[in-house]
Specification:
The structure holds 2 protein chains of 2 kinds. In chain A, 52% of the residues are buried. In chain A, strand 14 and strand 15 form a beta hairpin. The longest helix of chain A has 16 residues. Chain A has a 6-stranded mixed sheet, with helices on both faces. Chain A contains 18 helices and 22 strands. Helix content of chain A is 33%, strand content 25%. Chain A is of the alpha/beta class. Chain A has 3 domains: 184 residues, 3-Layer(aba) Sandwich (Rossmann fold), CATH 3.40.50; 133 residues, P-loop containing nucleotide triphosphate hydrolases (Rossmann fold), CATH 3.40.50.300; 68 residues, no CATH class. By secondary structure, chain B is an all-alpha fold. In chain B, 73% of the residues lie in helices and 1% in strands. Chain B has 13 helices and 2 strands, in the order H-H-H-H-H-H-E-E-H-H-H-H-H-H-H. Chain B has a two-stranded antiparallel ribbon with strand order 1-2. In chain B, a hairpin with a 2-residue loop joins strand 1 and strand 2. Classes of the chains: A alpha/beta, B mainly alpha. At the A-B interface, helix 2 and helix 4 of A face helix 1, helix 8, helix 9 and helix 13 of B. The structure holds adenosine-5'-triphosphate and magnesium ion. The site of adenosine-5'-triphosphate has 20 residues of chain A, from strand 2, helix 1 and helix 15. Chain B: It holds the Pfam family BPD_transp_2. Chain B: This is Autoinducer 2 import system permease protein LsrC. Chain B: The complex is composed of two ATP-binding proteins (LsrA), two transmembrane proteins (LsrC and LsrD) and a solute-binding protein (LsrB). Chain B: GO terms for molecular function: transmembrane transporter activity. Chain B: Part of the ABC transporter complex LsrABCD involved in autoinducer 2 (AI-2) import. Probably responsible for the translocation of the substrate across the membrane.
C-alpha cells in the first residue's frame, strides 16, 4: 500500500474540539479530526461511540455544541446539509435516505439536476449520467425505476451513486459496505482509490476491520464519544485496533460449541416462489447452526421470508417439529415456535418512535398479558434482561428507538426475537452493522441457543462468520440451492465456487 | 475528480426493465381509467338523453368543472408535500365577496381579480407559515384557519349579498361567455393546469415538492429548503383558491357569507379520486383535474338521467372509496412485481 505523505498539504476539512450532546447523552466530547486530500481516513469505534454523530456534524446535519469545523483552514458554520454539499462534501449516511416514489435517477440528482434553457431540468442528461454511474459501479439498475422496493444492497448502491455524482472534494461514508457483498465492495473500493488518487479526502466507517486495513491509510478511534487516537494504520494489527476501540483484549470471535444435532426441527420441502426461488429443500436439526450463504440477490432473504409466512410460496411445504405451516401466515409460524430476525431491521423490525422496552416487548405480548391487560412490569424486566445481555447502549430503556445508534437498533431487533424463546430461529445477517465486541457476543449467544436445543438458520454474507459458526453450509445461487457443505469441507473457495455458480468438485 | 458528464452524449443503452414499464403504465393508467369512466358516463347519459351534449350542455359541464379544477390543482401541490389545506372553501368565499364588493363600487374587473388572488395569497401564506413553522399537523392548522377565515367573512359580510345586478355587465358576460362551447373560464383553468403540470415536471423546485412528500427526512438531508417549499405550495394553493373566488363571482354573480361552505371536502375528494396520494409524493395535477371533472359531471349526469340529485353525495362517496381501494390494490401489485424483478445479479 502506498503512503501519500501529508507533510506540506493542509487538511481540507477538520474538526477541532467538537462536542455534541443529546439531552443527557454526550455523544461527542472534544473530538478532533483532520482529513487530508489524497487520503482515506477510517473512523473506528463500537456501536454508539459517536461515529455517525461526528459525520452528521461534518455534514451540517447537527450543529456542534462546542468546537469548530474548519474548511481549508478557515472556520465555517454549516446551517444545513445543503451548505456542506455546496462546499464539496458528499455524504453517504448509515441509513438509506431515498425518496421511494421517485426514480433512481431523480433520487441521485435531487436538488442539483443538470439544467437546460430557462432553468428546466435536463431529464435526458439526468438519465444518461445515472446510467453512466451505474455502469461505473457495475450494477444493472434501471435509472427510471422507482426507489420503492429496492433491496437494501441496491439502496446502498444508489446512495453511493448519489455521493459520486458530483465533484466532491470530501467523501464521507458511514458504513457503506454493511449491506454489500465481496464483488460490490471491490467495485466501491476501486472507485474510492481512483477518487483518492485524484486528490479527494475520504472518511470511511466500517465494522469490518479487514476493509479498514485494505482501503485506509489512517484511523481515528472513538470510545464513548471521546477521541482515543489518530494514527497511521501502517504497522498496526487488527488486535491493536480492537484494543483501541474496546479498551481491552477481545475474546474468541467465533466461540462455536460442538453439539450433536437432535431431530429435525425445521423442514423445508421443494419450496418455490415463482421468479424468486425454485425447488428449495433443506432440514435444520435441533442444536444445529446451518449457514445459508450466497451472493446478495441469490434469494436467501426471500426464502426466509416465505418460510416465516411474510411472502406466500407457490409450491412446496414447510414443517416445524412435524407440524405443517400455513402458507403466508406469520402468526401460525410464530405459534409453532419460529422466529425471524429480518434483514431490513429499520423497516421491518422496529417501531421507530416507540421505546426500547416496548419494542423488545412486542413479540412477547402473549406471555406478558394477564387477564387481557398488559403486565408492564413483566415486559420491562424481560426487556431489560435482553437489553443487558446484548449490551444495548442507551440512556434509559424508556427512550425511543430512533435515538439509538444504528448498531444498537440492530441489537434491539435481535433482542426482540430472542426474547420469544423460539424453537427455530432464522437470523438474516445477524451481525451486520454490529461492532466486533458485540459480534463475538452475538456469536456466543447463537452458539448457546443451539447448545440449548434451538435450531438456527443463519443467513450471512460474511464468509468468515459462516465458516466460523455453521455446522453445515447451504449455498444458494440465482434462486436455487447449489450446494450443501459440511463444516469440515467448508472453505472460502468451496463456498464461493457454489455461490457464483461454478459447481464445486 | 469524478466527472460524470452531465451531457446527454454517452447514453448507455440501459434496457427498460419490465418492472419500470409496468409502473409507468399503472400510473398513466390511473389517469386513463378516470378518463374512461368519465367518457362512459357521458356516453351513457347521452344515449339516455340526447339533449345532454348540446352546445349549452357541454358548456355547462365545463363551466361547472372549471372552479373545482382550479382549486383541486392548488390542493394537489399541497397534498403532494404530504400536507392538506382545508381552508380553500373559506378562502374562495371571502375572496369572491371582496372582489364583488370592489366591483359593486364601480371597480375595474382586472383589479378585482387581482384583489381576489392577493387575498388568497395572503391566507395561503398564513397557512404555510403556521404549517411549516409550527410542529402541528396541517389537518389541524388548516381546520383552524377554515373557521377563522369563515368567521371573519361572516362578521364582515353579515347578511349582505351580492347579486349579478350589482356587477358590471362585462364581468358577468365574461363569466358565462366563451368560444362556441368552451367557456373563457375553462380556458383560464386549462392554462393554469398545464402551466402547473409543466412546472412540476420540469423544474427543480417542482420535483422537490414530490421529494419532500415522499420522505421529509431525506429531503432535509438532500439540502432541500423544506419550509420554503411548503410555504410556496400553500401560497400557490391560496392564490388559486382566490382566483377561483373571482371566477365564482363571474360565473354565478351571487355571493354571500356562506359561499364556498364545505367546498374543501369536494376539493379533497377530487384530488384523491384523481390519484394524488394522501401520504404525499405521488400523483399529478392532471389526475386531480380529471377527478374534479368526474365529480362535477355526476352532478349534471344524474338529473339528465332523471335520477334524484340526493344520490350525488352517496355516489361521490362511493367513488372516493373505490379510488382508495384501487390505489391500495395497485400499490400491492406493483410492489410484488418490483420485488420479483429485484434479482439483478444475473
Ligand atoms: N437524535 C438523537 N437523540 C438522542 N440520542 C442520540 C441521537 N443520535 C444519537 N444519539 C446517541 O448518541 C450516541 C452516539 O450515536 P452514534 O449514532 O453517533 O453512534 P455510532 O458510533 O454511529 O454507532 P453505530 O456503530 O452503532 O452506528 C448514542 O448513544 C446514541 O444513542
Ligand atoms: Mg452509526
Amino acid at each position: 500500500m502506498t503512503h501519500p505523505s501529508d507533510t506540506g498539504s493542509a487538511p481540507v476539512l477538520a474538526l477541532r474540539d467538537i462536542s455534541k450532546s443529546f439531552g443527557a447523552v454526550r455523544a461527542l466530547r472534544d473530538v478532533s479530526l483532520e482529513l487530508f486530500p489524497g487520503e482515506v481516513h477510517a473512523l473506528a469505534g463500537e456501536n454508539g461511540a459517536g461515529k455517525s454523530t461526528l459525520i452528521k456534524t461534518l455534514a451540517g446535519v447537527h450543529r456542534p455544541d462546542a468546537g469548530q469545523v474548519l474548511l481549508d483552514g478557515a472556520p465555517v458554520v454549516f446551517h444545513g446539509p445543503g451548505d456542506a454539499r455546496d462546499a464539496g462534501i458528499a455524504v453517504i449516511y448509515q441509513e438509506p435516505t431515498l425518496f421511494p416514489d421517485l426514480s433512481i435517477a431523480e433520487n441521485i440528482f435531487m436538488g442539483r439536476q443538470p439544467r437546460r434553457a430557462l432553468g428546466r431540468i435536463d431529464h435526458k442528461a439526468v438519465h444518461a449520467a445515472t446510467a453512466a454511474l451505474m455502469q461505473r459501479l457495475g450494477v444493472e439498475l434501471d435509472p427510471d425505476r422507482p426507489a420503492r422496493g429496492l433491496s437494501i444492497a441496491d439502496q446502498q448502491i444508489v446512495e453511493i451513486a448519489k455521493a459520486l455524482s458530483f465533484d466532491a472534494r470530501v467523501l464521507i461514508m458511514d458504513e457503506p459496505t454493511a449491506a454489500l457483498t465481496g464483488s460490490e465492495v471491490a467495485r466501491l473500493f476501486g472507485v474510492v482509490r481512483t477518487l483518492r488518487e485524484q486528490g479527494a479526502a475520504v472518511l470511511f466507517i466500517s465494522h469490518r476491520l479487514e476493509e479498514i486495513f485494505e482501503i485506509c491509510q489512517k484511523v481515528t478511534t472513538l470510545r464513548d464519544g471521546a477521541w482515543i487516537a489518530s494514527e497511521p494504520l501502517h504497522g498496526m494489527t487488527e488486535d491493536d485496533l480492537v484494543r483501541r476501540m474496546v479498551g481491552r483484549d477481545l475474546e474468541e470471535l467465533y466461540p462455536k460449541q460442538d453439539v450433536s444435532p437432535g431431530e429435525v426441527a425445521l423442514s423445508v420441502r421443494r419450496l418455490t416462489r415463482e421468479g424468486v426461488f425454485t425447488d428449495v429443500s433443506f432440514d435444520v436439526r435441533r442444536g444445529e447452526i446451518v449457514g445459508l450463504a450466497g451472493l446478495v440477490g441469490a434469494g436467501r432473504t426471500e426464502v426466509a421470508r416465505a418460510v416465516f409466512g411474510i411472502d406466500r410460496w407457490d409450491a412446496g411445504e414447510v414443517e416445524v417439529d412435524g407440524r405443517e405451516l400455513t402458507n403466508g401466515a406469520p402468526s401460525t409460524a410464530m405459534a409453532a415456535g419460529l422466529a425471524l430476525v429480518p434483514e431490513d431491521r429499520r423497516a421491518q423490525g422496529l417501531v421507530m418512535d416507540m421505546s426500547i422496552e416496548r419494542n423488545i416487548g412486542l413479540t412477547g405480548l402473549r406471555t406478558t398479558v394477564k387477564a387481557g391487560l398488559m403486565d408492564r412490569g413483566a415486559e420491562r424486566s424481560r426487556s431489560l434482561d435482553w437489553a443487558v445481555k446484548l449490551q444495548v447502549k442507551y440512556a434509559r430503556i424508556a427512550d425511543t428507538v430512533n435515538t439509538l445508534s444504528g448498531g444498537n437498533q440492530q441489537k434491539v431487533v435481535l433482542a426482540k426475537w430472542l426474547a420469544t424463546g423460539p424453537k427455530v430461529l432464522i437470523v438474516d445477517e445477524p451481525t451486520r452493522g454490529i461492532d466486533v465486541g458485540t459480534k463475538a457476543e452475538v456469536h456466543r449467544l447463537l452458539s448457546q441457543l443451539a447448545a440449548d436445543g434451538v435450531a438456527v438458520l443463519m443467513i450471512s454474507s460474511d464468509l468468515p462468520e459462516i465458516l466460523g459458526m455453521a455446522d453445515r453450509v447451504l449455498v444458494m445461487h440465482e434462486g436455487r440451492l447449489t450446494a450443501e457443505i459440511s463444516r469440515t469441507d467448508a472453505t472460502e473457495e468451496t463456498v464461493m465456487a457454489a455461490a457464483t455458480g461454478r459447481t464445486a468438485a | 475528480m469524478t466527472v460524470i458528464s452531465p451531457n446527454p452524449a454517452p447514453v448507455a443503452d440501459v434496457p427498460k426493465a419490465g418492472a419500470t414499464r409496468l409502473v409507468d403504465r399503472v400510473f398513466k393508467m390511473r389517469e386513463l381509467a378516470i378518463l374512461l369512466v368519465f367518457l362512459v358516463m357521458i356516453a351513457v347519459t347521452q344515449a339516455g338523453n340526447s339533449e345532454f351534449l348540446s352546445e349549452q350542455g357541454i358548456k355547462d359541464l365545463l363551466l361547472n368543472a372549471t372552479i373545482l379544477v382550479l382549486v383541486a390543482t392548488g390542493q394537489s401541490l399541497v397534498v403532494i408535500t404530504r400536507n392538506v389545506d382545508l381552508s380553500v372553501g373559506s378562502t374562495l368565499g371571502i375572496s369572491a365577496f371582496a372582489a364583488g364588493t370592489y366591483l359593486q363600487g364601480g371597480g375595474n374587473p382586472v383589479v378585482a381579480i387581482a384583489l381576489a388572488v392577493l387575498l388568497g395569497i395572503g391566507f395561503g401564506l398564513l397557512n404555510g407559515l403556521l404549517v411549516s413553522l409550527g410542529q402541528v399537523p396541517a389537518l389541524v392548522v388548516t381546520l383552524g384557519t377554515l373557521y377563522i377565515i369563515r368567521g371573519i367573512d361572516s362578521i364582515w359580510v353579515g347578511s349582505r349579498q351580492i347579486t349579478a345586478a350589482d356587477l358590471p355587465a362585462g364581468f358577468v358576460d365574461f363569466g358565462s361567455g366563451g368560444i362556441s362551447a368552451v367557456p373563457y373560464l375553462a380556458l383560464i383553468a386549462l392554462a393554469v393546469l398545464v402551466a402547473t403540470a409543466y412546472y412540476l415536471k420540469h423544474f427543480g423546485s417542482g420535483r422537490e415538492l414530490y421529494a419532500l412528500g415522499s420522505n421529509p427526512e431525506a429531503a432535509r438531508l438532500a439540502g432541500i429548503p423544506v419550509r420554503k417549499r411548503i410555504l410556496a405550495a400553500y401560497t400557490f394553493c391560496g392564490a388559486l383558491a382566490g382566483l377561483a373566488g373571482a371566477m365564482y363571482l363571474a360565473r354565478f354573480g351571487n355571493v354571500d357569507s356562506g359561499t364556498g361552505n364545505g367546498y374543501e371536502l369536494t376539493v379533497v375528494s377530487a384530488v384523491v379520486v384523481g390519484g394524488v396520494v394522501f401520504t404525499g409524493g405521488s400523483g399529478s395535477v392532471y389526475g386531480a383535474a380529471l377527478g374534479a371533472l368526474l365529480l362535477t359531471s355526476i352532478n349534471s349526469v344524474l338529473p339528465a338521467l332523471g335520477v334524484s340529485s340526493v344520490w350525488v353525495l352517496a355516489i361521490n362517496g362511493i367513488l372516493l372509496i373505490l379510488a382508495i381501494a384501487v390505489d391500495r390494490i395497485v400499490a400491492l401489485r406493483v410492489a410484488s412485481a418490483l420485488k420479483k424483478r429485484n434479482a439483478r445479479h444475473a
